[in-house]
Fold these 2 entries.
Entry 1:
Amino acid sequence: MAAFGPNWYHHSGTGHFFNSMHYWSTEIFFGALAAHLLTKFFMAAWRDGRWKAWIVGIVTFAVVVPTALTGFLSQTNWDSQWIAVQAKDALNSLGVGAWLNTLNTGQMLTLHMVLLPLVAVILLGLHIFFVRRDGPVKPIDSSRPPKTPIAETDQNKKGAGR
Ligand code: HEM
């Protein structure tokens, strides 16, 4: 899409196909990300020194959300204009409107195609590095003694014979 430009991905059949692939990949990406966040949260996956992977994961999430936002701003249609006009108020209220202007299509497209994906890929590499180095976290119950100690089981067996 970056190579052939909007005339191709908005007006030709092949371009539309790649545009749709890009869009639906994003949908699957965020669906999978939500599943990943929820499962890791309920596993309490930050335990045993794994806070580094956890924090890098949070920062990566904070980068991919604006990547998707700037993608929607790059559609160059009524939809993207509407989103840009609404989003500029949010950024202005945060006091960053002088640097980040969602009405500036060039800035949004460059952020979308270059800066944010690059930062996301670097952070993802770091995230996977920590996970590979530390391994998956042990199950929550693994450090507790077994609920039915072996001795008790033996007693039960003796008792059962009486
Ligand atoms: C994490 C990475 C990325 C995410 C989550 C993402 C997400 C999106 C989304 C949601 C849209 C709007 C699609 C639509 O409604 O049709 C979009 C559009 C676009 N993206 Fe990405 N994108 C990513 C990376 C990239 C990269 C690396 C490039 C190119 C180097 C790129 C190029 C484009 C272009 C040209 C559009 C405008 C398409 C249109 O006019 O409909 N994106 N992106």
Entry 2:
Amino acid sequence: MSGANQHDLQVLSKSAFVAALRCPKLVWKFFHAPEGLPKPDQVTQARFEGGHELGRLARALFADGIEVMPQCCAVDLVQEATQRLLQLRRPLFEAGFLYEGTFARVDILHPVGSDAWDVYEVKGCASLEESHIAELAFEARALAGAGVRLHRCWLVYLNDEYVRSGPIDVPRLFVKADCTQRVSMHAQRVEQWTDDAHSVIKRPACPEVVMGVQCDQPNVCPLRGKCWNCLPNYNVTELYRGKRKGFRLLQSGVERIYEIPENGSLTARQAIQRKTIRTGIPHVEPETIKAFLRQLAPPIAFVDFETFSTGVPRFDGLKPYQRVPFQFSLHTLSESGATPEHCEFLAEGTLDPRREFMEKLQDAIPEAGSIVAYNAVFELGVLTECAEALPQYENWVRNLKRRFIDLLQPFRSFAYYHHAQRGSASMKSVLPAITGRGYEDLAIRDGETASIEFLRVTFGQVTPEERQRVRSHLLRYCGLDTLGMIQIVEGLRKAIGEN
Ligand code: SF4
């Protein structure tokens, strides 16, 4: 939803319609208090840009197309231009249609026969979702209302079986799905949804909405920070795998986990959460932790990978969104209590980094001993994909996999739980809870930002100084992940009295 123009007119654009489907409060704020909406963060912005790139690429499927008033958000101007260009009977990109207070800009409109049109909506994902059909139905309603004869409605999305070989083969990169029937089944519902959205927008006051699953689905709502900051620490939405239960408790007036009565139906792990909050003492199952630690055979290699993935495969042999490892950190402990040795790799240049990544990793990883990763399924998956692309590593990877131990295990099973984990077993929650030290001093604090920053300084136009600055942040971030794992193991030993 862009342009004050649309807000002033209270015209419901497609993005406003999607916001209304999620939450009446969100769409009301878009129209009445847009200044209070936070700007998209770096990760969201990168997703938008990735989507735009795919949208532009998909236009190559339609020869001789015309883009309708690029960069222009003025509804009346776009609509007039669209009406003029429709006469040419050529593919139109971003054509705009105004109908009964809704304004739909259509990714691609393609002429069929002498007077009909096919509509195409491009999505940067590899599967269809119900919300995509609702968006298409919103467009179809506006088109039909504006007098356009619709032939078929299509969704265009990424073909997850496409493997790049040479220049991008655009017709094979995308899949087209005929959704005409599903769209027509949505016709009545879309009518109702747009009416509901309009009546929300017309309200003088913001509707009261109770927080719920809509705040995190299909992604994090831009207003989540504001709506949720009224909740106290250790509130019921932090229950382990218990979001819906948490919302029910909130509605019944129970805000804090420690207030949940004994007869409240909690799972065993949620009950551990409540107990640790009430007592302030971590929950420890010594025998399970001992058994876990006994598996660790020196030299112990703590390893962490960073990867990027793009909708348009960047190198030959890649599928859409296939992971490409560009960095690893490895801390090796020759024996318990020894000073760890550190080794790291961060790809340079714009070529496919996988071969060098595997070479360096093979050199760095000890030939015996345990290999520890946090949520090891990620590292194992990356290694498997690399071995498929580079078969010379198949045997090595097969043997390596047997030595992997997942440090997530004692936390996911609640053999150890500290109330400061706040219902999460992720390393970003466990490390500060168990050691008191976290990622707050780092410029890069999560894998998604690491990936975006690597792509930006590797393939984008940046100064050498900026590239160097970001690369040093990447090294610090990945290095803390593996050093942090050693500290977590020490924390576990301490918790069972072994240190
Ligand atoms: S955070 Fe939740 S309640 Fe608040 S506007 Fe978003 S979806 Fe609605």
